[in-house]
Fold this protein.
Amino acid sequence: PELYPVSAKLCLEGKLTGDEEKLKRSNMPRFEERLRRFLVEEKGFILIRSVANNLLRVVSEAELRTDLQLKSLLTPLEDIQKRLDAFEEKEREIVSEKRDFEILLEGETKRIIDEVLDPDLQSVKKELSERMLAEYEEVYQKNRNLPPSKLRKTLEQFIRQSLSEYYAVFRKNEDTRVSMAFEKVAERFQKKINQIVDELLTYSSELFDIPFERFNAEALWSMESSFYFKFKDEPLMIEMLGEALTSLMPRFLSNKIIYKNMKNYLLEMIERQAGRIRWDFVDRLQKSRLEFRWQMLGRIDETIKGIKEAIEKGIEYQKQSKEELKRRQQEIEAELRSLRNIKERVSSIIKSTQLNLTTNNIFY
């Protein structure tokens, strides 16, 4: 790994005074150039390698399906049927694993809510109540002699602004915590799904005596939000009547009532906004879980479907004339050559990017 000792003090002095020598001695320009090169060039290599690995997996699976089609075309029907029956037995085993996957994924999502989100919300509500009640007291004391309507407006504005700021910071931090927790779960479960898919592919390749090369693929998961703050519903008639009555009272009395009411409003808003934040996070987690589940289980279903369709196509081709059978065989062999050519080219790209990363001392 590369180390770049830098002096922030020399860099700052050099930039403020325009002293190029100090700036150079700080070593910051060299570090900035290296960072720029990593972000612009080497990060590109990493992205290319990631995409190429995913492509290799797709091509390798397509190659296996095409090989299965060719093998089914050239193998006696009775033998193929026995192997297909064996594969369908394997498929029934996988169905049970899919059910386990769904149950465990739902449980892990609930665990994130119970062990991360809810404790964090309880903590922030307690902290906000203590901090904002003290601040509320200060604001009230400074403005206690204002007319009732103005006092109410001042206190309400303080509550809205302060809560928005505090909860915005909390949401940003919590977003990172919850997203990371879910991504860890997704990563773990994706590995399990990859194992199941690889197990299916390997089983079918061994069943039909076809070579199969496995490649790792990557996936990223995100949680989107539609959250917004909401502080005030339409006023109820009793609230409107209360406001009207306080405006008719002596100021010292009406302002005490406003103080009490707005204090209750503050505590209510702390609780209400926390509830809305919780709903938002839970909703996003559930949507992410369902999307992840759909994609992951879909991979298993598509793998099974692809393998069975390839075998069934080979069986169907055997029912055709010898000339048509020969033509089909040639088409499949040509497709295999094309897939293997693509695989070689993609592999060479991966080797090239790996060489660039190694040359630049980037290790993974």
In short: The chain has one domain: 8-359. The chain is about 85% helix and 0% strand.
